From TrEMBL:
<dbReference type="GO" id="GO:0051213">
    <property type="term" value="F:dioxygenase activity"/>
</dbReference>
<keyword id="KW-0001">2Fe-2S</keyword>
<dbReference type="InterPro" id="IPR017941">
    <property type="entry name" value="Rieske_2Fe-2S"/>
</dbReference>
<keyword id="KW-0408">Iron</keyword>
<dbReference type="InterPro" id="IPR044043">
    <property type="entry name" value="VanA_C_cat"/>
</dbReference>
<keyword id="KW-0223">Dioxygenase</keyword>
<dbReference type="Pfam" id="PF00355">
    <property type="entry name" value="Rieske"/>
</dbReference>
<feature type="domain" description="Rieske">
    <location>
        <begin position="44"/>
        <end position="148"/>
    </location>
</feature>
<keyword id="KW-0411">Iron-sulfur</keyword>
<dbReference type="Pfam" id="PF19112">
    <property type="entry name" value="VanA_C"/>
</dbReference>
<dbReference type="InterPro" id="IPR036922">
    <property type="entry name" value="Rieske_2Fe-2S_sf"/>
</dbReference>
<keyword id="KW-0479">Metal-binding</keyword>
<feature type="compositionally biased region" description="Low complexity">
    <location>
        <begin position="1"/>
        <end position="21"/>
    </location>
</feature>
<keyword id="KW-0560">Oxidoreductase</keyword>
<protein>
    <submittedName>
        <fullName>Aromatic ring-hydroxylating dioxygenase subunit alpha</fullName>
    </submittedName>
</protein>
<feature type="region of interest" description="Disordered">
    <location>
        <begin position="1"/>
        <end position="26"/>
    </location>
</feature>
<dbReference type="InterPro" id="IPR050584">
    <property type="entry name" value="Cholesterol_7-desaturase"/>
</dbReference>
Length: 366
């Protein structure tokens, strides 16, 4: 059979032809595919602030499946842009931080903080100069981490980020823990919305060895999500989780501390699971206590000298349990009443994603 030859003009015509549109309802398969890379129109933590220093080399990352570059200008402000030079599409993160711009090492193209091409040394005055050609992401720094707005085509402008009070209020002290985990991002949230696993997996922890190994769970709605909690047990173990969707999606929980844990009441955890790609997650856990004055100093000392390694050991147990877990394991599950929290979480994320995809399709942006 002879090969079919396509003329260059026909190829160009085919390339310009509009893609077929799908005006039908969004399918479950489309929702599953979209969720592999997270939920859009939300703020996501992407990296601890300490990794991005003024005047130093830009940092290239992948978050929500997108290549991004982080850098600080000479005044210390952080900037986040797509990690792609507008000339030949090579990573800007392999270039130089000039203090007020990035310079691509490949051909010297210079890009400003707002994405405008400031200079093309190889051809001064070319049309690329002065063009806003590099996507720039809204970014803020909160509690020692850089948060980035990942909007869809209908929501590129970011609303103000209002962080959890545990990460911003002056009467709270917090430490950020960050690690990249090899697993589908939603499984980290599933884990946090499963308080019962603490009774078994973390039974040897100094804070989670008490409490009943059997429990009945109930859900309780909030304006921004819901609680999933053990009925009749409070401040004993890992007794409840709260899903919060308030401009950002995260889980809040508390672990009661014994007197040896020092002042400050329960130990709060604010957990974010930022997708890197469909098989890897940037995990952020803020460990917080409500302390002031001398109690804050005591808590910081105890945490850094005695408790931090224990907390990393608990996280490592979670990481080992979930390492390598990829999307699609749900078809093998046989769930029961203790899993009602993660079931509701999954349904909620699917509903949010269905709404977003439907709006994009209606606007012709899908």
């Amino acid at each position: 059979m002879s090969a079919t030859t396509i003329s260059p003009s026909a190829a160009r015509t085919a390339a310009r032809a509009p893609a077929p549109t799908n005006n039908g309802p969004v399918t479950d398969a489309e929702i599953r595919e979209a969720l592999k890379l997270g939920v859009r129109n939300r703020w996501w933590p992407v990296l601890p602030s300490r990794f991005v220093k003024p005047g130093e080399k830009p940092v290239g990352l992948t978050r929500l499946g997108e290549p991004i570059v982080l850098w600080r200008d000479a005044a210390g402000a952080v900037h986040v842009q797509v990690d792609r030079c507008p000339h030949r599409a090579v990573p800007l993160s392999r270039g130089q931080n000039e203090g007020d711009r990035l310079r691509c090492n490949y051909h010297g193209v210079e890009v400003g903080p707002d994405g405008t091409v400031l200079s093309v040394p190889g051809q001064p005055g070319c049309p690329l100069e002065g063009k806003r050609a590099v996507k720039t992401y809204p970014a803020v720094e909160v509690a020692g981490a850089v948060f980035v707005w990942f909007g869809d085509a209908l929501h590129e402008e970011a609303p103000e980020f209002i962080p959890p009070p545990q990460l911003a209020a002056p009467d709270w002290e917090r430490f950020v823990c960050y690690a990249d985990w090899e697993m589908y991002w939603r499984y980290s949230l599933d884990n946090a919305m499963d308080p019962m696993h603490g009774t078994f997996l973390h039974a040897n922890s100094h804070t989670m060895y008490q409490g009943d190994t059997q429990a009945h769970f109930v859900t309780r709605d909030t304006p921004t999500g819901f609680f999933f909690e053990k009925e009749g047990q409070r401040d004993v173990n890992f007794d409840w989780s709260e899903l919060v969707d308030d401009g950002a999606i995260y889980v809040r929980l508390e672990i009661p501390y014994p007197p040896s844990g020092g002042p400050g009441g329960n130990f709060a955890i604010i957990g974010f699971a930022t997708p890197i790609d469909e098989n890897n997650t940037a995990s952020f856990f803020w460990r917080c206590r409500k302390v002031q004055g001398w109690q804050r100093d005591v808590w910081r000392f105890l945490y850094k000298t005695r408790m931090e390694p224990r907390h990393w050991a608990v996280l490592e147990q979670d990481r080992e349990m979930l390492a390598g877990c990829k999307p699609g394991l749900e078809k093998h599950e046989m769930l029961y009443q203790h899993d009602a929290g993660l079931i509701r979480l999954r349904r909620y994320l699917a509903q949010v994603t269905r709404k977003q995809l439907t709006e994009l399709r209606a606007a012709g942006k899908a």
